[in-house]
Amino acid sequence: MSERPLLNRRLAGLGTTIFAEMSALATATGSINLGQGFPDTDGPREIARAAADAVLTGRGNQYPPGPGIPELRTAIAEHQQRFHGLGYDPDTEVLVTAGATEAIAAALLALLEPGDEVIAFEPFYDSYAACIAMAGAVRVPLTLRQPTFRPDLDELRAKVTPRTRLLLLNSPHNPTGLVLSPAELAAIAELAVERDLLVVTDEVYEHLVFSGGHHPIAALPGMRERTVSISSAGKTFSFTGWKVGWVTAAPALVAAVRTAKQYLTYVSAGPFQYAVAEALRLPDTYFDGLRTDLARKRDLLADGLAAAGFQVFRPEGTYFITTDITPLGEKDGLEFCRSLPERCGVVAIPNVVFYDDTEAGRSLVRFTFCKQDAVLEEAVARLRRL
């Protein structure tokens, strides 16, 4: 048999994800899983009922339209107008995907060619690195550093070269909880226009901002025609297993992303698309209640982590908290997370897996707070053993 490795060399080092490893560890040890970001309760019952009704009445059980069912595309366009003042044509400027994960993959595969450079905030969600690699492009990290994790805009400008094709943004940012300010977004937009860069922006936590609100970069001057905005239903409605995401962009960008997407999943989640269309039209009280509830959970866990001896970086958005384990006398986040289940029955994620600059993330550990109060309280009690 050939000695050539079986795995495409672009994917070398991108084997089993840290989420799979830590979730398996949680199961094996009976630990509380504050690692992977999924809620432990389902979303609104009326939305679950809408999905069940769609299945039972035969809506979406066969292949839905490639771009997504018209009802959902219309609801996405209405959502963008309602919350962000952005007008999109549901027929030519909206594309439904298998979660934001596929939207990111399709966008990067469509818009990048081998050798193109992509600037992304580091730490970056692991699928970004994998998708950039699959496209044959080169990732160029802009490191967000503690304690504020705010981007150095001068450094960003310096990283743009003639080979830079695209800026990959994530705000609210996983794992740091950073929410880009209007001034930061304006500076990034100005740079993108000046250097004629495309922007792909992952906004799945758009409704999980605890102060100041979410500001889409696509709304800024010169950005609509160069920005691919991505979001999904999983984080907002607590149905992460449904994998319903979407792209909104100018027609030429949507057409490009759709070309790649149709050869990935083709279509997905037929009945769930009808339910998500209803979810996007829930009243403001739902979105306000979600945000208020998660802000309270954030504070519950953040206070408990601080009491246990962690340095806590309280997030502005998302449902993750980044901590530094140095005050505990620890240095290696990966080693710490692998030992934590045995030490006190809690699972977390080492941030170092989200970094190219491993030293910048070595002592950082991420916890999620999208869990029931009783679970968070028990986790806090266990962490006090440290």
Low-confidence stretches: none
Largest sheet: number of strands, sense, barrel closure: 7 strands, mixed
Total number of helices: 14
Care to count the β-strands? 13
Helix content: 40-55%
Please indicate the percent range of residues in DSSP E strands (runs of 2 or more): 5-15%
Mean pLDDT, all residues: 96
Q: What overall form do the CA principal axes indicate?
A: globular
Biggest sheet: strand arrangement = 2-8-7-6-5-3-4
The rounded distance between the terminal residues' Cα atoms is 50 Å
The Rg value, from CA coordinates, equals 21 Å
Structural class from helices and strands? Answer: alpha/beta
- Name the helix and strand elements from N-terminus to C-terminus, one letter apiece: HEHHEHEHEHEHEEHEHHHEEHEEHEH
Quaternary: single chain
Note the main attributes of this structure.
4-stranded antiparallel sheet, 7-stranded mixed sheet, globular, alpha/beta, 41% helix
Tell me what the structure shows.
- Helices cover 41% and strands 15% of the residues.
- It is of the alpha/beta class.
- A seven-stranded mixed beta sheet has the order 2-8-7-6-5-3-4, sandwiched between helices. A four-stranded antiparallel beta sheet has the order 9-10-13-12.
- Helix 7 links the parallel strand 5 and strand 6.
- The relative contact order is 0.17.
